[in-house]
Automatic annotation (TrEMBL), chain A:
Major subcellular location class: membrane
Source organism of the structure: Simplicispira suum
Nucleotide-binding in keyword set: no
Subunit field text: The complex is composed of two ATP-binding proteins (UgpC), two transmembrane proteins (UgpA and UgpE) and a solute-binding protein (UgpB).
Keyword Transferase among record annotations: no
Domain ABC transmembrane type-1 as annotated: residue spans: 71-283
Name by which UniProt lists this protein: sn-glycerol-3-phosphate transport system permease protein UgpA
Family: Belongs to the binding-protein-dependent transport system permease family.
Gene3D superfamilies (alphabetical): MetI-like
Automatic annotation (TrEMBL), chain B:
Known function: Part of the ABC transporter complex UgpBAEC involved in sn-glycerol-3-phosphate (G3P) import. Probably responsible for the translocation of the substrate across the membrane.
BP terms from Gene Ontology: transmembrane transport
Membrane-protein topology: Multi-pass membrane protein
N-terminal signal peptide: none
PANTHER family (UniProt xref): ABC TRANSPORTER PERMEASE PROTEIN MG189-RELATED-RELATED (PTHR43744), SN-GLYCEROL-3-PHOSPHATE TRANSPORT SYSTEM PERMEASE PROTEIN UGPE (PTHR43744:SF8)
UniProt protein name: sn-glycerol-3-phosphate transport system permease protein UgpE
Domain of life (superkingdom): Bacteria
Native species: Simplicispira suum
Family statement: Belongs to the binding-protein-dependent transport system permease family.
GO cellular component: plasma membrane
Keywords: Cell inner membrane, Cell membrane, Membrane, Transmembrane, Transmembrane helix, Transport
Subcellular location per the Swiss-Prot or TrEMBL entry: Cell inner membrane; Cell membrane
Hydrolase among keywords: no
Domain ABC transmembrane type-1: 79-270
Amino acid sequence: MEKRVLFRSSWLPWALLTPQLAVIIVFFFWPASQALVQSLQVQDPFGTSVEWVGMQNFRQLFSDSAYLESFKTTAWFSLLVATLGISISLILAVFADRVVRGAMVYKTFLILPYAVAPAVAGVLWLFMFSPTLGVVAYALEHVGIHWNHLLNSTHALTLIVMAAVWKQISYNFLFFLAGLQSIPKSLIEAASMDGAGPWRRFWSIQFPLLTPTTFFLLVINMVYAFFDTFAIVDATTQGGPGRDTAILVYKVYYDGFKALDLGGSAAQSVVLMVIVIALTVVQFRYVEKKVNY
Amino acid sequence: MVERNPLLDVISHAVMWLGVAIVAFPLYLAFVASSHTAQDIVQAPMPLLPGGNLWETYKTALFGGGDGAGSTAPVARMMWVSFVTAMVITVGKISISLLSAFAVVYFRFPFKMLCFWAIFVTLMLPVEVRIGPTYQVVSDLGMLNSYAGLTVPLIASATATFLFRQFFLTVPDELVEAARMDGAGPMRFFKDVLVPLSSTSIAALFVIQFIYGWNQYLWPLLATTSEDMYPVVIGIKRMIAGGDAANDWNIVMATAILAMLPPAFVVVLMQKWFVKGLVDTEK
């Protein structure tokens, strides 16, 4: 798609593009290519000797049980965050769409977590579930659950899932609400004239029309769970207990900056890049399909 | 609504209340905690109603002087760092994206599509997957612990460029012709016609990018080592370095509230544009 009328200048477009191109070359393409190069090298922590090792870092990575464990943790974590986040916000959006009185107040409250930084969300939930002084941990004690995310990996995983979902609900909610409100009223009215109750209308009209939104949100939520939850993990469990909540992004950071295994960390970055590319392609396919509607 | 159904209305309100309660409870608790003394909070169960220490807690948080186990640096300074960072990122992103979108839509030049795709591909390179080498570049340029280091690497924006491109494509060609007939050059057209027409998209992006900049975590964690360059989101994490009881939880929670206020303010104030922007950018 192109404009019929264009300006003519040989230098101006380049001048306009220079700031953006300079930033992406220096801070995106150069580091990304460095990550590729480093993933094929072994470097000692002080950077004094570098050796080419080809695919060795990758071979090592995929035979390392800790890394495979981290893959499994990430898969579980993302799946839980995406499904819980999407279903809770869908329920909220469906009912918010019905409510007339007080709708504005409800909506304002429900979108508030969007403004909260993941790290702050992590700290809030950490405070509520702190084994020694948390209010919720105290309440759980009374119903016989001995909460301790510092020792129990299931508790630790539950904690980061809750914080991550809480943070993401508002985003999903907004998309579902926008989706619901774009469904023509006449369609709903026609269905109810034919005797379809609210339940029936939801399953046979609203939900099918929301599938594209749901799919889109699934991809977005996966990306969110993969990358943006680093702050939540770092603020609450720091990958513990043991390495049981060390999701992939956390492990890249930990191995590169704490354990100083540069080659291994770079190899993990490359694996992550492949995952993002795959997710972006899926998303792009979806965007293209949407245009054809 | 289509039909009147009192039972369903009651259920709807009940679900809304439940949702609001889940969303608001952590926030309320943070507020309550920030209104007590550190000693009151560590007595389990902590009080569930506000106490009388509100003013002192916020004063200690903002100006420093707490005696918790972790960092006790003044939060006022951190808020300032966060604010400058978020503003530079937001304004920077919007300006360079406007300029590049203008270039790719309104000019024909060699390698145009290549440039567009080069920008678009950066969507696939989030900072998380290139932290090591990016840190290396920034450190080689001597930009650690500076506003430049905190902001410039985050300023490129494929999404914003894409959004402006899509918008510019819908602007009628007649406007260019009219501007030309009046003798206006490309930059004049950009400044007097295109930018004012884009004001809604700009406002929406402002909200989204301000929050993005304010809430950054991983990058500032690497790019800053000195306490006076910590954004507030990093600062709060440094405060909880001690064990459960050793932290001044009232001050931590006051900091949490302070860290949430500016982005929450922006969201609530610009709710309409924000919703429009969110729905338009990502789709």
